[in-house]
Amino acid sequence: MESSSSAAGPLGRHRTIHGQVVEWIGRRIVSGELSYGSRLPNEAELAAQLKVSRGGVREAVKALAAKGMVDARPRLGTRVRPRNEWNLMDREVIDWHGQVAAPEFLNDLLELRLMVEPGAAQLAAERATPEQVATLEAAYAGMAEHAPRLPEQEQSFVDADLTFHLTLLRASGNQLIEQLGRLLETSLRHGLAASSHAPGGVEATLPLHHAVLVAVRGHRPVAAARAMRRLIETTTSAVSRLD
Known about the structure:
The chain is mainly alpha-helical and 243 residues long. 67% of the residues lie in helices and 3% in strands. It contains eleven helices and two strands. The chain has helices spanning 17-31, 43-50, 54-66, 91-99, 103-127, 130-146, 154-171, 175-183, 185-197, 201-217, 221-240; strands at residues 70-73, 77-80. Strands 1-2 form a two-stranded antiparallel ribbon. A hairpin with a 3-residue loop joins β1 (70-73) and β2. The radius of gyration is 21 Å and the shape is elongated. The model is unreliable at 1-8 (pLDDT under 50).
């Protein structure tokens, strides 16, 4: 398939053409622009619109079908499948939800974090290495440094926040929990960015990050789990005020 795109087309230039077409369609499905049951333009129309080959469109549709997002049938065209049939644990599907800031996905993400992260914090308090504790300390220090200068330093704040949470998951010593963190990394980044916009969210959650850090550093598993639960519950409350 082509390895470069035309600047005149609607696709970005940061990935292969195949990846760009998959993402272009996938994001529109996730955002609801292409809703359940709606029919995609045919190959020729999409190829002309995106300025790619028909074969490129065909391969992209196959990729989306493999993710459970579309159903392509000869003579009947390609239609969007219901969301409960999508592979929501597919990395790209997760990323698209984060990119379009889908509210229902953010809520689902917070519920998942509430189930996973308190337990991860408890394990981290038992298993974290000195290097991992040092990384948590540096990440928290970065958050504290950049918090007073939000939103101008949002990127740096979110980078530090993301490092804190991913390090905590890794410090659990559980490979499946660490893998889940890597899978959710992009959506977690978008979720943390959204929570940083919530009125009073950073002021309320920054001390709770510190409480988690202190509990992990002091090898206090129950306190670490409790602090992390309060952190995510406080984040959920703050995000609800964005609606």
